[in-house]
Design brief:
There is one protein chain. Helices cover 57% and strands 7% of the residues. By secondary structure, it is mainly alpha-helical. The chain has a domain of 132 residues. The strands form two sheets. It has a two-stranded antiparallel sheet with strand order 1-2. Helix 1 runs antiparallel to helix 2, helix 1 packs across helix 8 and helix 7 packs across helix 8. The longest helix has 20 residues. The two termini are 20 Å apart.
Length: 207
């Protein structure tokens, strides 16, 4: 995951946890939505310009639709790490499938999906993990995820099964390379060949 987006999501997760439990998911959604909208609406020179004149503000309002279109881009094959390109080819997918899940803005890949298309806590946890590894793989070529980031997102999505969090990883150990036990001290987990095959299934399912 792009570092800037990852940091923001962690900030929003922390803020959401301060809300009453029944409002945490909504709070996270609102914070993330507001942040993504701000990225879409900002003009390239806005950060440097600071306060603009009223006329400039009016002009920006008038052209906001154009700016949204201009700033949101499809992800190109050349944007992907070479290992990600090899992965897609091997599992019979294309960059078009990736563009159904993410879009590019200022070099960041931002999610288009909200629904994980499952109601099971165990499956939700695994899907979050694999999607985290996908985003990391697209940027860096390493199909791996941080288990604690998965825990945080599962909590916000209200699919966190605390007593069985470690067990869900262990029950799906074939998806992870050299996995024996989950440890907070070593939360980085790499996908195995089976894990990448499962990831390909999830990409198709979320289309």
């Amino acid at each position: 995951m792009a570092e800037k987006l990852k940091q923001k999501i962690m900030e929003f997760v922390a803020l959401a946890k301060e809300c009453p439990e029944n409002l945490q998911e909504k709070c996270f959604e609102l914070l993330l939505s507001d942040y993504l909208n701000s990225l879409r609406q900002k003009s390239p020179g806005e950060a440097e310009a600071g306060k603009g004149k009223k006329g400039d503000a009016d002009e920006e309002k008038k052209n906001v639709g154009e700016k949204k279109t201009a700033r949101q881009e499809d992800i190109l094959e050349t944007d992907l790490h070479v290992k990600a390109r090899q992965f897609l080819k091997k599992v019979g997918l294309t960059v078009s499938h990736i563009n159904q899940l993410f879009y590019k803005e200022e070099g960041n890949f931002l999610p288009l999906y909200d629904d994980l298309k499952t109601t099971k806590a165990s499956e939700s946890q695994i899907r979050i993990a694999l999607l985290h590894s996908l985003l990391n793989g697209l940027h860096k070529g390493d199909f791996e995820f941080n288990g604690e980031s998965v825990r945080d997102e599962a909590q916000v999505r209200k699919c966190y099964d605390a007593p069985n969090f470690t067990a869900h990883f262990k029950n799906n150990k074939d998806l992870f390379e050299g996995f024996t036990n989950y440890s907070k001290a070593s939360p980085i987990i790499r996908l195995s060949t089976d894990g990448k095959a499962k990831l390909a299934e999830i990409i198709k399912d979320l289309q």
